[in-house]
Amino acid sequence: MEIKKPKIKSMQYEDFKDNAYLEKMVAEINAEGTNVLLSSLDDLINWGRSNSLWPLTFATSCCGIEFMALGAARYDMARFGFEVARASPRQADMIMVCGTITDRMAPVLKRLYDQMPEPKYVVAVGGCAVSGGPFKKSYHVVNGVDQIMPVDVYIPGCPPRPESFYYGMMQLQRKVKLEKFFGGVNRKEKEEK
Amino acid sequence: MFDFSIVSSWIHGLLTGFMPEGLAIFLECVVIGVCIMLMYAVLAIILIYMERKVCAFFQCRLGPNRVGKYGLMQVFADVFKMLIKEIITLKSSDRLLYNLAPYMVILASILSFACLPINKGMEVLDFNIGVFFLMAASSIGVVGILLAGWSSNNKFTLIGAMRSGAQIISYELSVGLSILTMVVLTGTMQFSEIVANQADGWNIFKGHVPALIAFIIYLIAGNAETNRGPFDLPEAESELTAGYHTEYSGMHFGFFYLAEYLNLFIVSGVAATVFLGGWMPFHVSGLDGFNSIMDFIPGFVWFFGKAFFVVFLLMWIKWTFPRLRIDQILKLEWKYLVPISMFNLLLMVLIVVFGLHF
Amino acid sequence: MNIKDRILEIVPEAQFAEQGDLTATIPAESFHALAERLKYDKDTQFDYLLSLTGMDWGETLGVVYHLESTVYGHTIVLKTMTANRENPELPSVSDLWKAAEFNEREVFDFFGIRFINHSDMRRLYLREDWVGYPLRKDYDDSLNPLRMTNEVTEDTTEELSLDEEGNLVNKTNVLFEDKEYVVNIGPQHPATHGVLRFRTSLEGETIKKIEPYCGYIHRGIEKMNESLTYPQTLALTDRLDYLGAHQNRHAVCMCVEKAMGVEVSERVQYIRTIMDELQRIDSHLLFYSCACMDLGGLTAFFYGFRDREKILDIFEATTGGRLIQNYNTIGGVQADIAPDFVKNVKEFIAYLRPLLKEYHDVFTGNVITQQRFKGVGVLTREDAISFGATGGTGRASGWACDTRKRKPYAMYGKVDFKEIVYTEGDCFARYMVRMDEILESMKIIEQLIDNIPEGDYQVKMKPIIRVPEGNYFASVEASRGEFGVFIESHGDKFPYRMKYRSTGLPLVSVIDTITRGAKIADLIAIGATLDYVVPDIDR
Predict the structure, then answer these.
(1) By the CB < 8 Å criterion, does B186 face chain A?
(2) Which residues in chain A (168-187) have CB-CB distances under 8 A to chain B?
(3) B157 CB-near residues (< 8 Å, 6+ apart)
(4) What ipTM does the predicted assembly reach?
């Protein structure tokens, strides 16, 4: 059965700037082929999963305030279903790394990531989490969270506007919609040094 | 009034027509069990959606509105996701108790839920000591919470479980005393009779002053029983991570989550039954035309309407007040609520003895 | 009473600097005696240690102390050096000023100077297994690759002291006994307002002792500054206390402008003052929201954020940023104010005034709030001064520490506003100080907003900015306290040492003192009302 392009409500497929990686994933899945029953089940499960991504409350610095503003009344991420931010990693689906990760914090973050149950996603928010940001030359900053864990979506900005957060979250939703329940997940990971 | 015993006796007649009595009863029990669990799940979904929307409207925002029209499918998405999450087994937890705890909490919740009379003839567990059984069954939940906190092998969960245990055990006194006040007024502990006695007026009107005091105390204590509202210190998100259920993931956590909302509903359901008349419509003695119009609306509509009204009240309280500290919670109970309840009970006894009620 | 004469009287070998602020260089042996005299003498009474900065002067290491008297208002800068680089030791002043406890640990962490008679000589920001001292000029970063192993937390610490012959003796102090019930709060925790770790020793619900562990967001800004030009260092100041972005940048620009003798136009002074006050309102609204959220009244959180968004709109129209503004520059501001700036600000003030009454109705008057705040976490005035806890916290304890009144800068000397001081020192006083300060800020803005004079928004500066040699210090009243900038320049276009006097470090050091005997829930209330921002502590 053919997997269709992932659809996000009230936003055109063409408005997303980068569809190439999704189309590659779709081609991969279609090449392997799936039967109708399993892929309908997958669709249902992926619909459920993509609309109910619960973030872990994790904010180290400035981007955390923009994350709080995202949850507040004007931008209201509850509309998407994301507002249930759990404090315990065992109950969260994804971790939005907002803020700089320092050398002292890196093992703590890895431990938090390890404690989360599958399927879990990582969103690197802000310049510092993507690549070290303004603090790239510092002796105590990890240059990007993908040095220590696999990242699914990068949201650049210093700090990114709440609308950029939404763009990143919708990209994540599209990626979740293309996962196979019994199959692999497409993630970007650097070698551990 | 729509009487559900018509339906249940028709089904019983049908089944005993072609199978022995014992088998028919067994089959009926299975069906009822399935129906209760279905209703439990559906009510939980409705309540979770209601909470998210109500809290959003209090906070000047919209709440879920993208998943299905008005966000109605949001909780279904949450349920699907919860069902397929990985259930993590901890390395150094007490395996049996850790896995047992969520089931104990759900067990207590379903047992109490089964006691509520939803319509005339539609009650599942109806003993002559119904009230007493309900309070005893809901106490089993404390065991589940304490087990969860202890067996997670985590200092935070232990603190959360201890707090919760102390709080629930203390507030059961107030709950018991306020319901006892109404038992004194109605003279029976059986739920179906309590509701039937309110045909000429709800208990809260019949018992005027002490019934009103008992209602308020019951609301406060019931709130504390379910770890909600100003009393949610044991699972205070901004204090102890997630309290006693920190280490649970996937469906085990789902059970705790569900049980919290259903306990809220049960507290409201009991309040609606004992104080507000259960499935009994609103009758004014003397206005027969008005009364027969009220009788047209079926009993379960009345019951759910009243229960959801009380749920809304409790949600309103939760989203307005900040949290109390644990020693303030216990002080409130032992130094204020229990003496007031006991005095109230005495007052009600005097009123009943001297016939001063309506 | 001339301070210079008094110092020469006590320590005849003291030397005074030629340029910049008045600095006295004191030899290490007589330093502690001088410090004690300066603190306790009736006519000097230097009871407030503003800033304690470690320095690396090539051949020796040393420390620069900024002292101030809350009674008389005079200030002095003292400098002292170690004998050599290999075994640097200095006498500790933590018995005189409690602010020195954490600051000296920071100097040990960055420079390796060990302080004699300091009861807890451990690193503050970096891991215990870190090799080397980062802020020394000869630091080798390759010795410290990213370590992903979990840190081993020690329960004991070291103290150095001198015995009778003058030899150094190591003593071990115990932090936590084996039998204590120690719980780890943080670093990832919803209520610590950032990544701060507290190891708490509990007895049931009561707190016996708290040890804070900082450094989880230590980004090494001070070391980075030494290789950036002055305009480039401005880029990082917004990210320190991001809720005081305008104020932090204002401090740095003020310091450099003072050092170079640049006068900014009056229009710039007006704009800087108005932006500072808007930033203060923004920060206090966020304080209100987070305090309510921590206490469980989640609805008020949304109300505070909703109003904060209006200020962010005003900022965005002029500076382009919501949180990180990049607005002040050396010699002026980045761009002129937007055309409808004045109108928007006036509308906003008219909108916010009645809402503050609503906030008080929803949260402050609630009996639960009052029970949770009143009498909890009392900080005495002497402790506040000794720790250097400025800002709303200091003013709630009865210490009138507002920098806008003590050392007026920009337009603060010419506007009329009250300094809000409460005396109880508990959580409720700290909360009310900030709520009342919002009203005062609105009053200041109202006096200035209609009279912004015409003029340049930027003074013409040379393309390469070189600050003349010497030590310079400037401080502003940031949203959380006195934010100071200390620059030591050797005439280059890079600062030789640029240190930020943090507003949050004294607040964290106060926590152990005021939470003894309180409950865990009180720790949350205290943390919420102390109102620190962790990147400002860790820099």
Answers:
(1) no
(2) 181
(3) B148, B149, B150, B243, B244, B245, B246, B247
(4) 0.87
